[in-house]
Amino acid sequence: MNTLRPSLFPSEWLLVTSLLLILCTLFVFSKIQASRTKECSTSVSIPVEVMISGHVCKPGSYLVDLGTPVSEVIVKAKPKLFADLTGFSSDKRILGACSYYIEPQTELTIWVEGACTEEEMKVTPGTRVCDLKQRIALNPDADLAFFKKRRRLSDKEIIKIPLKR
Q1: How far is CA 33 from the centre of its chain?
Q2: Alpha-carbon distance 114 to 159, whole Å?
Q3: Do the beta carbons of residue 118 and residue 136 sit within 8 Å?
Q4: What pTM value is reported for the model?
Q5: 60 in a domain, yes or no?
Q6: Which tens digit of pLDDT belongs to each residue from 43-75?
Q7: Residues contacting residue 15 through CB under 8 Å, at least 6 positions apart
Q8: Considering 57, 77, 102, which residue would you say is the last residue of a domain?
Q9: 54: domain range?
Q10: Are residues 127 and 95 in the same domain?
Q11: 112-115: which pairs have CB atoms within 8 A and are 24 or more residues apart?
């Protein structure tokens, strides 16, 4: 009597196949991760010299890696109050040795709304809210207490002058 042992049941084959698939997937992921870490460890950073001068607290030469955002270097130079940073976009990158001159702002543009007749004004940097009272044509029902504020105005600011209560 020769009894043959039956082969694996279909559910057992499914289990074996699933385990093999999981092992193959883990092997592929480990190879991908190993190649990524190898690429990262072999990359070389190239330092370049960037000169910053003008309306900054710390003018001078800065060594940064190639591809560093220009805005990051400008922050290191500590721009002064009212430095004109409009020409420096956050996505611009350092592509080689270069120099930047930071200009001071010569005028601020503000918009005045509410109880007045003016709309757009050009003022000098450092102008305060209280300084606007003499420069604006106010309506008779404008709240003059609003002009007691000594806060400095910023570029492209909208000032809303309230009515008397």
Answers
A1: 30
A2: 8
A3: yes
A4: 0.58
A5: yes
A6: 568 899 999 999 999 999 999 998 889 999 999
A7: none
A8: 102
A9: 47-102
A10: no
A11: 112/136, 112/158, 112/159, 112/161, 113/158, 113/159, 113/160, 113/161, 114/142, 114/159, 114/160, 114/161, 114/162, 114/163, 115/139, 115/141, 115/142, 115/143, 115/161, 115/162, 115/163
